[in-house]
Design a protein that fits this description.
332 residues, alpha+beta, 2 domains, seven-stranded mixed β-barrel, three-stranded antiparallel β-sheet, 10 helices, 22% strand
């Protein structure tokens, strides 16, 4: 029995080390990519379960290296309403062994929705949501920015786009780092989630003004099972008020910029504890926004900080906290 237990521990530690050591997430410098292909074709020939063979180039030490990959579309709203579909990439581990993608079996690639002028700015805003999530929760997806030179060949004349995008690690990698596993379920009782992690996720979603999620029904949310506890793991924040995308008007909430608290009621003691925890991280959250200030106009940078400060102002006021959060939490 002791030998079996030791083996299990070693396997968990090995898996955790693999998740931590993948080179893609050891740097925050954007990866430079070159992709040639047809957006129309990838939409037509792939779906949630069907991959198509492809390849792209990435820059390594000044040279362009070819990376074979299988690709499929993913998502719901963006897939139906955007020009560029969000993608999922699958690799043969041998093909990427000597590349920056080593150790990753699959990755999500988040790309702009539309071709308009603010497309890359919106992607950077969503990327910031992921970085903020890292600050307020122990369970998060790692990300890495990418500069993509896309040659679209489905037009009569090839057209080039300079796109900002970012990679998101697979949920299995998060599970390995957390020494847990991903749970697939049509629904999970709100009471089943670990209380404090659930509140952290609820507050985060409220902070960025996102109503397009559900931990219970795994909408833009995965569920981790760690140490006998269910943990929400959120993703896809483009519908949030913080990102402020024009297409978010289609979100059936009270408004794309208006905060709606969608968390379930938890013990007042836990909600107060996480309230205090978030207030202690206020400066760290603002610092993340300021770290990207060179990539935004002064107006955009200030607007994002003002929006987030609106959340912290609610936390700082007992009356506003009671009205906007404690008084709005869901009971069913």
């Amino acid at each position: 029995m002791k030998t079996k237990y030791t083996l299990v521990v070693l396997i968990l530690l090995f898996n955790r080390s693999l998740a931590q050591d993948v080179p893609l997430f050891q740097s925050q410098e954007p990866v430079n990519l070159r992709i040639t292909g047809s957006v129309k074709s990838i939409k037509k020939n792939s779906n949630d379960s069907t991959f198509v063979a492809g390849k792209f180039l990435y820059q390594k030490d000044g040279e362009w290296v070819t990376v074979p990959a299988e690709v499929r579309v993913r998502g719901n709203f963006r897939l139906k309403n955007c020009y560029f579909p969000p993608l999922k990439l699958k690799f043969n581990m041998k093909d990427v062994a000597s590349t920056v993608f080593s150790g990753n079996k699959t990755l999500k690639l988040v790309v702009p929705c539309e071709t308009n002028n603010d497309k890359n700015s919106l992607i950077r805003r969503e990327y910031l949501c992921y970085k903020i999530y890292e600050t307020v929760s122990s369970y998060y997806f790692r990300t890495r920015l990418a500069n993509i030179e896309l040659t679209e060949v489905s037009q009569k004349k090839p057209r080039k786009y300079e796109l900002l995008a970012f990679f998101v690690e697979d949920n299995s990698m998060v599970a390995q780092r957390s020494q847990g596993k991903v749970i697939k379920a049509k629904s999970t009782s709100p009471a089943a989630f670990e209380e404090k992690q659930s509140i952290r996720n609820d507050y985060f979603q409220y902070m960025i003004g996102n109503a397009d999620w559900s931990a219970v029904f795994q909408h833009n949310s995965n569920t981790l099972y760690v140490d006998g506890k269910y943990i929400p793991l959120s993703y896809d924040f483009d519908m949030s008020g913080f990102v402020n995308a024009g297409y978010a008007q289609a979100n059936p909430s009270s408004g794309p910029r208006e905060r709606v608290y969608r968390g379930f009621c938890k013990s007042k003691e836990a909600m107060e504890e996480i309230r205090k925890d978030f207030l202690e991280k206020e400066s760290a959250v603002i610092a993340i926004i300021e770290s990207e200030s060179d990539n935004f106009s002064k107006y955009e940078s200030n607007e994002m900080k003002v929006y987030v400060n609106g959340f912290f102002d609610i936390l700082k006021s007992d009356d506003n906290f009671g009205t906007s959060i404690l008084g709005k939490c869901r009971t069913k």
